[in-house]
Design a protein that fits this description.
The protein has 351 residues and is of the alpha/beta class. It folds into two domains: 62 residues, Phospho-2-dehydro-3-deoxyheptonate aldolase, domain 1 (Alpha-Beta Plaits, 2-Layer Sandwich); 255 residues, Alpha-Beta Barrel (TIM Barrel), CATH 3.20.20. It is built from eleven helices and 15 strands. The strands form three sheets. Strands 7, 8, 9, 10, 11, 12, 13, 14 and 15 form a nine-stranded parallel beta sheet that branches. The chain has a four-stranded antiparallel beta sheet with strand order 2-3-1-4, with helices on one face. Strand 11, helix 7 and strand 12 form a beta-alpha-beta unit. Helix 3 packs across helix 4, helix 6 crosses helix 7 and helix 10 packs parallel to helix 11. It is globular.
Length: 351
């Protein structure tokens, strides 16, 4: 069961609902989005119905939700959500391009990659300072030094920063630099991390796990929402199948399926799904045609020297193709290509 608070509901009214639910032996989790506040209830539904919560001050609606992922479900919020990252909208009416280097290596490499990203139509900067890899001998990222480079490049280019966080203990540090926190595929079911980013006051980009079902993916998003954060963007990045011709198999059907089940935006990662530079542009076109709300793409000025995933990084000629694809296909899908918003200071985190 969920309680939808009115837009004008006061904190005192929200606290009163939470206190009433807990007095009946249940628990309540307050989740705040850009335009609404939801209180998710845990416990006996019959006990909650006896509380007559719909009559409480500030309550707009009380709903039963049968889906296991209640807060991110369209059952209680039929309209699809728009999530804003540093002023940049991601949602059903726009197409948002997130691009940059898979891994931050040097200030020069990162800045040039982001300049290329802007030429491709990017409105958000992606870059990895922490790189959890299959092999412990692979490049693991620059850590906080990489975060500082991303912050400097944001000042130079105006693009808000999307970067990965890999453990609960570093969430506050990464959030102090980033406009959006990314949860990678390997951490999709790291529940302690999901709860930590849910409390961090930053929008979250949640990638689908290698072998995760759609229900498991949405349930992972629910962990974030339950801890107070509804500003979540889902990313389909390919799943592991028997096929070996590509790095992963892009589940393009996940885009319309998830959009039917959840109000959260859904974007596609054509770089990690295909794993090859020559597949990124075709998969980008497919993602846009399937109705994705955006794409996240790897770009590198010198892919042959890249310390991470150079085989899938785009070069300048590909950048022009991506720019053409997003410019031409966006209006055909009834969308506006999201333009960069000059980033100022890092926005304050939500309370």
């Amino acid at each position: 069961m969920v309680v939808v608070m009115a837009p004008e509901a006061t904190q005192e009214e929200i606290d009163a609902v939470v206190a009433l639910v807990r007095s009946a032996g249940g628990d309540a989790f307050v989740s705040r989005g850009v335009s609404r506040t939801i209180v998710g209830l845990v416990g006996d539904v019959d006990d909650f119905e006896a509380l007559n919560l719909g009559s409480r001050g500030g309550v707009l609606q009380v709903m039963r939700v049968s889906a296991p992922y209640k807060l991110v479900s369209r059952q209680h919020h039929p309209a699809r959500s728009v999530i804003r990252v540093g002023g940049v909208p991601i949602g059903p009416d726009t197409l948002s391009v997130i691009a940059g280097p898979c891994a931050v290596e040097t200030p020069e490499q990162t800045l040039e990659a982001v300049r290329m990203a802007k030429r491709a139509g990017a409105c958000l900067l992606r870059g990895g300072a922490f790189k959890p890899r299959t092999s412990p001998y692979s490049y693991q990222g620059l850590g906080e030094r990489g975060l500082r480079i991303l912050a400097e490049v944001r000042q130079e280019t105006g693009l808000p920063v999307v970067t990965e966080v890999i453990d609960p203990g570093s969430v506050d540090m990464v959030a102090s630099y980033a406009d959006m926190l990314q949860i990678g595929a390997r951490n999709m079911q790291n529940f302690a991390l999901l709860q930590a980013v849910g409390r961090a006051g930053r929008p979250v980009l949640l990638k689908r796990g290698f072998s995760a079902t759609i229900e498991e993916w949405l349930s992972a998003a629910e962990y974030i929402a339950q801890r107070g954060n509804l500003d979540i963007v889902l990313c389909e990045r390919g799943i592991r199948t028997f096929e070996t011709a590509t790095r992963n198999t892009l589940d393009i059907s996940a885009v319309p399926v998830v959009q039917r089940l959840s109000h959260l935006p859904v974007i596609v990662d054509p770089s990690h799904s295909g794993g090859r530079r020559d597949l990124v542009v075709p998969l980008t076109r497919a993602a846009i045609a399937a109705g994705a709300d955006g794409v996240i793409i790897d770009i590198h000025p010198e892919p042959k020297t890249a310390l991470c995933d150079g085989d899938q990084a785009l070069v300048e000629s590909d950048v022009r193709e991506i720019a053409d694809a997003v410019t031409i296909l966006s209006p055909l899908m009834g969308r506006t290509l999201t333009m960069p918003v000059r980033a100022g200071a890092l926005p304050a985190r939500a309370a």
